[in-house]
């Protein structure tokens, strides 16, 4: 594959990964914390850290790293394609924030805890959050050179380094494919980038396509259920008309998951676990099942072959799949992702990080853990619901105005989850 957007001035992808690898594999983060520990207060330490966040040049004693050029170039290319992976949208001011998301969170911590005595947990988690965003930007540049699959694997290895024993203990997500989801789960005024990215995604290996479908199926279900309940007042037509960029991605996700299920039933080489594929498919369908088994919305007109492939397989396995979906019926004594809905995935991660920073207690539950009800060890299983309800509490104290009413943008509601499950199965049986 020939390079699509790389230029002779751009730092090679592998070289950028090597710079980050050296920082994450060595004592870089610990050395930065050691330098910051001379700061008397949280604010003093974060003011120094903010300089590195903004310039992408790190000079803390022996801990040095220069990412200024690659971050600048990669961000410029990504913006040109329609994504602001590093910057959030300010809905009140109606523009993209000038500071990056990690810098915005850092500034918030100065306001909330600036006068506290130096706390090493705060800069450590923020440093990891900075690297998480740089890695998420890298996922969008994986197609610039010769082998997108290889470059996504490079980012995946770096993510594991980031969240490994030398890290802060904060968990963000499971894999590079979820980083891709986080990087693009923002409000974008112009949505041209989503079609381009989906077209590129279709050219990935079976393994990467399946992993992307797994995360997107579950996340898009949570996202559309939020829209159905809050933004669009349970009006499916409004939701379809306002999510033209989302439906092709959801179609790709549920069709790819169905392909995996079909492979499993035929004894083929599926790469996902059956339980995972079925659960994510159910979650994705819970957003708008009729769009995939009934008449398709206009936004899927160009994807009718894929939609019909899903529908044909679903009708073939309908009775078996509906029976398997029953295993994911929300219960009052267990966490269910069907009870969890939100506006954007990146807000879930940001809320989790903010809670960690306020209480100096890193979460070991990741975004992927919140998108599944798969059995975990007992403390982790309880932590999922605790985290979801904690995020809802923050969202309630900072509501957004939607349809003239103030509403939280992250919700965990078992009753709504049970209602969504029943409605989805009823539509699948029609």
- DSSP strand content: 5-15%
**SS-based class:** mainly alpha
The unreliable regions are 1-8
Helix content: 55-70%
Strand order of the largest sheet: 1-2
Assembly category: single chain
* Distance from first to last alpha carbon: 45 Å
Which sheet architecture does the biggest sheet show? 2 strands, antiparallel
Order of helices and strands: HHHEEHEEHHHHHHHHHHHEHHHEEEH
How many H/I helices?
Answer: 19
Summed over residues and divided by their number, the pLDDT gives a mean of: 95
Quantity of strands, as a count: 8
Indicate the overall shape: globular
Radius of gyration: 21 Å
Topology at a glance:
Elements: H1 13-25, H2 28-36, H3 42-55, E1 57-60, E2 63-66, H4 68-80, E3 89-90, E4 95-96, H5 101-113, H6 121-140, H7 148-162, H8 176-184, H9 192-201, H10 206-231, H11 236-242, H12 246-266, H13 274-285, H14 290-293, H15 304-325, E5 340-342, H16 345-359, H17 367-370, H18 378-397, E6 400-402, E7 405-407, E8 410-412, H19 414-429
Antiparallel strand pairs: 1-2, 3-4, 5-8, 6-7
Helix pairs in contact: 1-7, 3-5, 3-6, 4-6, 5-6, 5-16, 6-7, 6-8, 6-16, 8-10, 10-12, 10-13, 12-13, 12-15, 16-18
What do these coordinates show?
By secondary structure, the protein is mainly alpha-helical. It contains 19 helices and eight strands. 61% of the residues lie in helices and 6% in strands. A two-stranded antiparallel sheet has the order 1-2. Strand 6 and strand 7 form a beta hairpin. Helix 5 runs antiparallel to helix 6.
